[in-house]
Write a structure and sequence with these properties.
Helix content of chain A: 25-40%
Radius of gyration of chain A: 19 Å
Number of strands of chain A: 15
Number of helices of chain A: 10
Oligomer: homodimer
């Protein structure tokens, strides 16, 4: 046994923060104290529009290319979230951001305008939930007083990177999802702070790949990862699904959501019965917006949480949500090389203080 | 003030884990208990060869494309590191891995063969140090008993993604760095464990961009980020540079390292005087290997730490190292769009238990 150089060990606490492999609980649940969501024009006409904090007039937002637009959106979401929390950049110890562009350039370019330490993460669309889990861990343990989590996606930037130039007007199959143009950020502060949402638990996902290869049906590919994370979360926390008002995935889309509900019921006897929703499904109105299987992209979960949930939970409309971010971890290169799609899902429990 | 749902607060501890904005210390410093480094044929002929754990015979390693090779290398580095620690996959609570390929596919595809929860990070070549900082935080606070950090790069996969098809044989300027083919992984365990390296502190970096645009001179672009992180680390920890045997950057290369040493001395009066080295410089022999400014890529810092440092510190050859991972956060797309190169640097203190 080697010599210790620092303060004495904190074993009693350590024993209770880890509930299982990859499932943690926070001792003094960190609070989401502010959120800010900025969406594109199309998302600004969807059912969530009233909860969004700003809507772009066009998809460029004064920039000459969409990659810059996305980065600007993320920068502003982070800056506005910090300001809304009544804080300055010096009050935030770390930012964790993520996006879908190669080398996560929306994140990095956004963060060069800030003076806050920054760690980039990449878990595809599971990144916002994954980032919240890491940020809450850093805050709960006292490594940071406050952390900001942000994420973005832009339909046109994603489309030309992952699929085809948008100008080409390629037809999309019914299982395809529509990448959301949106950026959202939340400020996570010390559990002593007053704020509308507590982050109480998190479950980090394992990488699943059942061999599906169709990038136009990512919802189906991500179901096993979402199911595994939900099952592990329930087992490790000792909770039943009715501990949550909502099991909120992001983003399985319409097709993936239906498979997820059947999968949970048929394979595991768990009835999600009106309790499940999906960020990608919530953000567009299928009767008016032609998005096939629904939305996808980090903008969906980032904006539903930062824009909608922060307000809805603050008003007591929702009490307990398990957010399960789901990500497809392929790239166009791996697709062309004939590979299937690995997927991951990270979960965080978001609870209204004193709700039960 | 809202109701608390969980155990009582742990404020005394929280007050001491955060030393400043983005600088943390670990209460019971987590241990690196095992490492494994796997390198390509060229790196296997460099000065670090004797410390590497395996060397590929060719750059394909039985795969039909380099992207698959890289992913296989990372998977094996992680698996061997776990085995060398005498553990199984069930004993590891989370893996944090990173690489340079679009959508971090080396990481994700590697992790689909494991059953361990996984979070992907992306900070370019700062990712291995950043991952170690996050992993140590999760372990120190008791969210995980053990975490694995892994990273990889592959010269040929990186070259064709970032620059030109390797077959084209494009000439490279003297400031260019050579992407290392290598994968390394370390197992970070609870501070109660016996192991050759303690992770005692970390400083998360801020994103710096002084307007440099040349992707063939990333070393120079990353100097301000490295300097800022080192200065913040010294200020927040109250340490002088002589607290460390080595300030080990990864990877400024030869050109960037010289600028870094001058920058620290001329601007800040800090003499790194024989105390600085760089993972990219250490890994090749310039008299025999034509790599211009030295190595780069996550393989460099991952293999120098997982292969060399773990053994060197275990044998008492080195006592205290500040690893400063440095990353260029651009993409080919942002370069073509005329953008400059944002950069970041994350630092972790690695100390031999009982060394002082």
């Amino acid at each position: 046994m080697a010599t210790l150089t620092e303060a004495p060990p904190d074993r009693p606490q350590a024993a209770t923060r880890r509930l299982g492999q990859g499932t943690v609980r926070f001792m003094l649940p960190p609070r989401i104290v502010a959120g800010f969501a900025l969406v594109g024009p199309m998302e600004g006409r969807g059912p969530m529009a009233g909860y969004m904090d700003a809507t772009l007039e066009d998809t460029y937002y004064g920039e000459r290319c969409w990659e810059r637009t996305e980065s600007k959106m993320l920068k502003e979401a982070v800056q506005h979230a910090i300001a809304r929390a009544g804080l300055g950049e010096g009050d935030v110890d770390v930012t964790l951001t993520t996006d879908l562009l190669n080398q996560c350039v929306s994140s990095s370019f956004a963060m060069r305008s800030l003076t806050v330490p920054h760690v980039g993460i990449f878990c595809a669309c599971a990144g916002f939930a994954g980032g919240m889990a890491l940020a809450a861990a850093l805050v709960d343990a006292g490594f940071a007083r406050r952390a900001v989590v942000g994420a973005s996606s832009h339909h046109d930037a994603a489309e030309r990177q992952y699929r085809f130039p948008t100008e080409l007007g390629v037809q999309r199959p019914p299982t395809a999802q529509w990448t959301v143009t949106g950026a959202g950020a939340v400020v996570i502060a010390d559990g002593d702070t007053s704020g509308p949402i507590q982050v109480t638990h998190a479950t980090f996902g394992r990488v699943w790949d059942l061999g599906l290869k169709d990038p136009y049906d990512m919802g189906s590919a991500m179901v096993p990862a979402a199911a595994d994370t939900l099952l592990r979360h329930l087992r490790d926390t000792g909770r039943a699904v009715d501990a949550y008002d909502w099991i909120l995935t992001g983003d399985l889309g319409r097709v993936g959501s239906r498979i997820f509900i059947d999968w949970m019921k048929d394979r595991h006897g768990i009835d999600l019965d009106g309790r499940h929703s999906d960020c990608g499904v919530l953000i567009y109105d299928p009767s008016r917006q032609d998005v096939h299987s629904g939305g996808s992209g980090l903008g969906a979960s980032a904006c539903v949480v930062s824009g909608y949930l922060v307000k809805a939970m603050s008003r007591g409309l929702v009490n307990r949500v398990l957010l399960i971010g789901t990500g497809s971890l392929h790239s166009p290169t791996t697709h062309f090389q004939g590979e299937s799609i690995p997927t991951v899902a990270h979960a965080v429990s978001l609870e209204r203080p004193g709700a039960r």
